[in-house]
Amino acid sequence: MAKVNIPALTTDELNSKLNDAREELMKLRFQQATGELSDTTRLEITRRLIARLLTELNQRNRAAQMESES
Is residue 63 part of a domain? Predict the structure, then answer.
């Protein structure tokens, strides 16, 4: 998986990357369950990417809420 500059992405791009990462995680879990997955570090990398994407989205949502309250 290529390095992604998360803060530089638009919100739509973040949501798209998040959906792609969640789909990839699901596929990796199936591969692990069937014994086809040889590189288990991909699970951890994908989970961390999902966490980073969610963190960025949450930060943007909080910033937008703070602006609207001001």
Answer: yes
